[in-house]
Write a structure and sequence with these properties.
By secondary structure, the protein is of the alpha+beta class. It is 16% helix and 42% strand. It contains 1 helix and 8 strands.
Amino acid sequence: MIYKNLALFMCIIFLSLIASISIITPQETDGIKDFEGKWKGSHNDLLVTLLINSDHTCYLELKNSLNEILDTFSGVCNIDSQKYPNAFSIKNITNRSFSMYSLIRKVNKTTIQVTAFSTKWRLRDVSFTNENIINLSKII
């Protein structure tokens, strides 16, 4: 009788432990999938093009109002979908010794908003304001 109660007690503890581990362990989600595609918009007289690929590579292009390319950034993108707003970073930028950090959110299927980019994670914007929002519309 004691052994049956002990076995039942051990089973309950074991099942409780398994259930709690599955609840506590965060589920990995790939935030890139929600933002894949080519996005275009403008901000402070700059034309902005952002291409986000499913393999986590991305390309950012900045042009002036005369459609002349001012700068391009090609690197590895990461979107942290565990937080809201989503943290957005471009790392391993070709021919650059810095990374770029921002926030990103999806407004609808054809529009996203990105905050102004910072080269320091601690200095990036922490919220969306009228002054720092870059509205981008989906092209592809």
